[in-house]
Amino acid sequence: QVVLVIQLRSHDYRSLQAVGEGRYDKQLNAFIDEWKADGNRRLGIRPMHEFNGDWYEWGTYRGGSNSKAAFKRAYTHVSRLFRKRGANAVMQLSYNCVNPNDDQTSFKEWYPGAEHVDMVLCSAYNRAGIDSDHQKWETFEQVFGWGYKQMAALPGRKRLGVAEMGTTSWGGHSKAQWIRDAFKALVNQYTRVEEGFWLLQNKDGSGDWNLNTRSEVAAFGQSMRKYEYAADGVKGKGGGGGGHGTQ
Question: Domain GH26 spans what residues (predicted)?
Answer without folding.
Answer: 1-234
